[in-house]
Amino acid sequence: MNNETDSMETLRRDAQTAVRALRQRVSRLDDDAIDLILRDARSHYAWTDKPVSDELLHTLFDITIAGPTSMNTCPARFLFVRSAEAKARLAKSVKPANLPKMMGAPVTAIIAWDPDYWQRLDFLFPHDDRKPMFAGNTEYAHDAAYRNSTLQGGYFMIAARAMGLDVGAMSGFSNAIVDEEFFAESGWKSNFLCNIGYADETALFQKLPRFAFDDICEIL
Q: 68 and 108 in one domain?
């Protein structure tokens, strides 16, 4: 084998060893952890004034970006809106009912995606050239970007909860206004907004119903 093949084989073995070691350390999350991130987690609408530091945002990103995407495309892009000036710009896009939620949050993340994400596949997927799958195939590239950036947005919310933050995702805004206001130069496209911070639970109401397994699941 040549040096490049030897290196790839070493990387594969190291990755397999790391996963086995992780499974030996932690076989599953305990029920309290699952409750925190999903089962008893809530979407929040009001916020305390406790700040969210740059360090927390960096950690949140580092956890989020580790989540899987198809062909490791990682199309999501994240803009953290925190300053009063940036909040005022974002407010132009938000529906009136959602404005207090956004303005009161310490940080609002714009979960976006980069239409040119596939141009980075030489870095993200170096062992095989997948760029031809996307070049000139606008519909395929768009579908993959939207699907996987949404998936990354889900990772973002779960990661934030795992870190002790609260979240409140929002779709009640104008994507066109956000894109014009914040992404005119980069060409990024907004997907959804997500308020993050430390919630004021007094704004919560009862948790809404969910389907039972037999309502929407089948095992074939």
A: yes
One domain for residues 35 and 140: no
- The answer to the question of residue 34 being in a domain is yes
Type and span of the H or E element at 113: strand 107-113
- pLDDT digits 0-9 by tens, 52-65: 999 999 999 999 99
On whether the CB atoms of residues 79 and 162 are closer than 8 A, the answer is no
For position 119, which CATH number holds? 3.40.109.10
CB contact at 8 A, 178 and 89: no
Residue with tokens 């990103």: 61
Beta bridge partners, 214, equal none
Q: How far is 82 from 98, CA to CA, in rounded Å? A: 16
Identify whether 216 is part of a domain: no
Segment 156-213, tens digit of pLDDT? 999 999 999 999 999 999 999 999 999 999 999 999 999 999 999 999 999 999 999 9
User: How far apart (Å, rounded) are the C-alpha atoms in residues 194 and 109?
Assistant: 5
Given this model, what pLDDT does residue 7 score? 84
Q: Does 118 map to a domain?
A: yes
10 & 88 share domain: no
Domain hosting 116: range is: 42-204
Question: Which has the closest alpha carbon to 75: 180, 194, 188?
Answer: 188
Contact assessment for residue 195 and residue 46, using Cβ atoms and an 8 Å cutoff? no
| Global model pTM greater than 0.90 | yes
**pLDDT value at position 2?**
66
2 plus 95 within the same structural domain:
no
